[in-house]
Amino acid sequence: MFGCRCKNANHTYKTRITNKEETLYMEQSQYNQLFSFIWNIATDVLVYAFDKGEYKKIIMPMMVLRRIDVLLEPTKQTLLAQKKMLDDNSISNQDPILFNITGYPFYNTSLFTMKTLKSETDPLRLKMNFTDYLNGFSKDVQDILDKFHLRQMVDNLTEAERLGSIIEKFTDDKINLSNKPVLDDNGNVRLPALDNHTMGTMFEELLRRFNEENNVTEAGEHFTPRDYVKLLADLAVIPIADKIKDNTYTVYDGACGTGGILTIAQDRIREIANERGKNVQVLIYGQELQPETFATCKADLMISGDIQAFQYAHGTEMREYIAFDSTISRDGHPGETYDFCISNPPFGTPWKEDLKKRGLAETEKKKFTDSRFTLMDSNGEEISFIPDIGDCQMMFLANNISRMKDSTELGTRIVEVHNGSSLFTGDAGSGASNLRQYIIENDLLEAIIAMPEKDFYNTGIGTFIWVVTNRKEERRRGLVQLIDATEIKSPLRKNLGEKNCETTESDRAQIIKLLTDFAETPQSKIFPNNEFGYWSVKVCRPLRLRFDYNEAREAEMCQKEKDAAICCEVMTFVKQYDHSADYDFNALQELLKSAVKGMKSKPKKKHIDLLQKYYTVVCPEAKIVLDSDGCQIPDKALEDYEVIPFRYENGIEGFLENEILPYTADAWIDMKSMQVGYELSFTKYFYKPKALRSIEDITKDIRAIEERTDGMLDDILGKV
Predict the structure, then answer these.
(1) Cross-strand bridge partners of residue 521
(2) How do residues 52-72 score in pLDDT, each as one tens digit?
(3) Dihedral of the CA atoms 451, 456, 458, 464 (nearest 10)?
(4) Residues 232, 562: Cα–Cα separation, whole Å
């Protein structure tokens, strides 16, 4: 669900040219010009014919379609000739041959291109030809078109007589949506290429702008700023750079959006490997719920020409590299494990729709069975990681934990973004606490990094990056590092929504250094694992009752209780005693039991329960009520719960002795109630008290106020 966002306006966009040994740059001015051109298509072509909320449903798929179309133009005639030959010879398995002609894992066998379509002036014939053009694409592009619901929009564009205009705009020679540059007659770059990263940036920036224009704020929840994505990639790869070998590595993102985290991590691993003279292949896997972002992600990965996409297209690898649907309710990669899991899952998003997909109601989350979110302990008891229905982010972390490799030297590194609630939400024994407990007690948590507020687009909240691994360095064993990077940021010259700062290259280097140095500093704290664990226990106090006769309550007993015979026997017993006497309830119980024996009635407990309910009151001075075994009965009204840190001296007994008994000498702890919980608090370890103003400053302000108001009271009273 989450991908990447735009960069600060101070930066340039790097574009790789695949058919030349050179690297060109799309300057910010060129990016702005391209962005403005596409943005203005909506205001020029769609205005008055469509609601603003529909603009993105047309502009986004047309942008992706043109990006695919322009790559197929150079080989169009060769492909059509080859297609005719294959058909004439009744060759059925045509995909591999046609892929080789286009150079991509997609093709179009229609007679049309978008440029030839724009010459058609008749709206109905244009619709017919455009539909034929769409039908000519290979199966993976058909999947992309279906996710965009583009055919439905073609009907709407035709009805509004805007189809020809929008095709003409997207085929304008002034713009280039290809991943290859447009050259002039002398071989110089006239229009730079639009690489996959920048395409994702543009897609997400357009979506943000469209949503803001239409008063929709969800875009900021969905996309990760590009500067932030680069930090995630560095945190995943740099600490283990010396362990990278000639090998194949896999990267997974269960909330991959337009694929920015995946492709940047892929590039970072390759870059580090090349620096060390290593030859690596990096395969990327992901899953995405939103149809439009899934379609864009899939299109860009196909356009990239990566060997992995070719394998999928040729059928040699039939797994879905980028799966569609919710990661929570439908695992697109069941049983698969990966070297790197890097994600920015949704924050504060309910997952009740996932329950519905499993045929469950909101109240039936305990029936939501999935091995990724539950495990069996050594006693064969099930431990659940399933959190509250209102927030699914911890389920993405549990999903990544289930992807960890156990049999490799590198193991798995997880780098995942969360908001603050993942640190502490959920009581002891809850799913969220259980997951924290599992991660920490199995020594998987390497570090948590607190990031600056206002680092995302439509939210000012601070975020936290979890770094989890099953291959900790020796020096980190049994320890957790907390890093306060809230002040490591660079201001933007102009806010982008809520975002007012970014993490520059130098900022990233500073954060990585704090992680890799693994030293105690004002910004870095190191703790043993048990620092974050605690026992939750119930503190009991004894029940103390005295006999109290009340006619109204006795009448209530006769009215409410169904067993009239038992009630009558209790009343007969009570009337034998002086109602003004201060009877001890324990002694009264024994007398009642003897009386019941004489009555030969059953059950005896029913008599005692009625006696206690209707003929006693709580009295702090009364004797403690005992059960049949002579044990104290707790007073439920006085029950309380205490949280006792694992590191408290002498544990639970020490806490009872030092913190409870000096104030309530008759209290005890119900050990059967004990549950283990885990939580983390950055405020506790990095609290920065705000300095109070000095007396001199306060006095100076008061004197200034007095001077400004001097004589004001006389003026007011003089007019009365």
Answers:
(1) 524
(2) 888 989 999 999 999 999 999
(3) -30
(4) 67
Alpha-carbon distance of 470 to 341, in angstroms, equals 12
How confident is the prediction for the chain on average, in pLDDT? 86
Neighbour tally for 583: CB within 10 Å: 19
Q: Which amino acid is at 531?
A: E
Give strand pairing partners of 447. Answer: 467, 481
Half-sphere exposure of 711 (CA within 13 A, CB side): 2
- Tens digits of per-residue pLDDT, 283-338? 999 999 989 888 888 888 888 766 555 555 455 444 568 899 999 999 999 999 99
- Residues near 472 by beta carbon (within 8 Å), at least 6 away in sequence: 443, 444, 446
Distance between CA atoms of residues 13 and 198, nearest Å:
6
Share of the chain above pLDDT 90, in %: 54
pLDDT at 301 (0 to 100): 82
Using DSSP bridges, classify how beta strands 223-224 and 189-191 pair: parallel, antiparallel or unpaired: unpaired
DSSP state letters, 480-544: EEEEE-TT--EEEEEEETTEEEE--HHHHHHHHHHHHH---BTTEEEEEGGGGEEEEEEEE-B-B
pLDDT over threshold 50, residue 1 = no
CA-to-CA dists, residue 637 to 539, 623, 659, 711, angstroms: 11, 17, 20, 61
Find out whether the peptide bond into 603 is cis, omega within 30 degrees of 0.
yes
CA dihedral 456, 459, 464, 470 (to 10 degrees): -70
Residue 646's alpha-carbon distances to 536, 540, 559, in angstroms, are 10, 21, 51
| DSSP state string for 343-406 | E-PPSS---HHHHHHTT--GGGGGG---TTTEEE-TTS-EEE----TT--HHHHHHHHHTTB-S
- Per-residue pLDDT of 547-599, as tens digits, reads 888 889 889 999 888 888 888 888 888 888 877 777 888 888 888 877 777 77
| Separation of alpha carbons 584 and 596, rounded Å | 18
- Residue keyed to tokens 């009337």: 575
d(CA 436, CA 685): 18
Residues counted in the chain: 720
Distance CA 505, CA 112 (A): 46
Angle, helices 150-159/123-135, rounded to nearest 10 degrees: 170
Q: In whole angstroms, how far apart are CA 558 and each of 140, 569, 570, 606?
A: 76, 11, 10, 14
546 pairs with which residues across the strands?
Answer: 584, 617
Phi-psi region of 315 (alpha: psi -120 to 50; beta: other; left: phi over 0): left
**Distances 227 to 197, 484, 503 between C-alpha atoms, Å:** 12, 18, 6
Q: Do 295 and 61 form a contact (C-beta atoms < 8 A)?
A: yes
Residues 6+ apart with CB under 8 A from 386: 365, 366, 368, 373, 374, 395, 431
> In this structure, what token pair is assigned to residue 665?
């000498």
Distance CA 488, CA 705 (A): 39
